[in-house]
Design a protein that fits this description.
Elements (H helix, E strand, L loop, with lengths): L7 H33 L1 H8 L1 E6 L7 E2 L5 E2 L1 H13 L2 E6 L5 H6 L5 E2 L7 H4 L3 E2 L4 E10 L18 E5 L3 H9 L4 E5 L2 H10 L4 E5 L2 H8 L4 E2 L7 E5 L2 E2 L4 H16 L2 H10 L11
Parallel strand pairs: 1-4, 1-5, 8-9, 8-10
Antiparallel strand pairs: 2-3, 6-13, 7-10, 7-11, 7-12
């Protein structure tokens, strides 16, 4: 005997209807997500606003002030060129170094252009563009406090104090290289520089060329004991997550200006010469 399934067609019809509902919801969700992403992407907001808010922190030669109090430096040139290419005005907002990422996350700024190094820890909070510069982390040491040291290993001692700027790569680098030394964190480059020159700390670790500048300006108080950097890093633009259009533009911008050698020539001016020093106050 052949049995007829009386529920087959109604069930089949029900499943097809259910599937259409699911596909419709997924389609609408996709549209919603796309629309939301477009609304959140900072690129369109910057263009519409007519200005890009750039987070910076004073660190020579990335960011400095000239004799008239105006911002100058490698990253200032980079940000100005970026803004010009976008057809907008750059608005610089200065922060202490360890406040930069917080300002970005809080959307007080659109981008960080201040010699910020790419690190996995920072990558959990923000998005980096492709790198457009590179630097090494080195140290400058106080001559009097280290006059009896025979090796760089002598800095790895519980009686030794090593200075860093809060929120920088140096703050995590020093405990790895000199785990026994005491870490002394300062709010900015000027405080850390004064500490090593005056002998408050035995050494100061920072990204190049800061240690070299400190040594050049204070030859009787400090020196550069290392020929090679402790760590080599890559610097990039930093923006908030979920801004694919802005990220794509930044990466394209970097490719274009690497190709025309603008980034290289600008970097050479600020990092391989001291011609700019006449622009800043003593």
């Amino acid at each position: 005997m052949v049995y007829t399934n009386l529920y087959a067609k109604p069930l089949e019809t029900h499943m097809k209807s259910f599937s259409r509902i699911v596909y419709s919801l997924l389609f609408l969700l996709g549209i919603s997500n796309t629309t939301l992403a477009a609304q959140q992407d900072i690129f369109d907001q910057i263009i519409k606003r007519g200005e890009i808010r750039v987070g910076i922190s004073i660190t020579a030669p990335w960011v400095m002030k000239d004799k008239n109090g105006k911002y100058i430096g490698f990253e200032i040139d980079v940000a100005k060129q970026l803004a010009s290419d976008m057809g907008v005005k750059p608005v610089f907002k200065e922060y202490e170094w360890d406040k930069l990422i917080t300002a970005l996350i809080n959307r007080d700024i659109d981008i960080i252009a201040s010699g910020i190094s790419i690190t996995p820890k920072r990558g959990l909070k923000i998005r980096f563009s492709n790198p457009y510069s590179s630097s090494g982390y080195n140290l400058v040491s106080n001559l009097k406090l280290t006059k009896n040291f025979t090796s760089i290993k002598d800095l790895n001692d519980s009686k030794v104090y090593i200075g860093v700027v809060r929120g920088t790569v140096s703050e995590s680098l020093v405990p790895k290289v000199f785990p026994r030394a005491k870490l002394d964190s300062f709010k900015d480059i000027n405080e850390a520089t004064s500490a090593v020159v005056n002998g408050t700390v035995h050494a100061f670790v920072a990204s190049a060329p800061t240690p070299r500048f400190v040594a050049l300006n204070n030859p009787d108080a400090v020196d550069l004991p290392l020929e090679k950097p402790l760590l080599v890093t890559k610097e990039a633009f930093a923006i908030n997550k979920y801004n694919p259009e802005m990220l794509a533009y930044l990466n394209s911008w970097i490719v274009a200006h690497k190709a025309d050698a603008w980034i290289k020539s600008t970097h050479n001016y600020w990092f391989k010469s001291l011609k700019w020093r006449r622009k800043i106050g003593k």
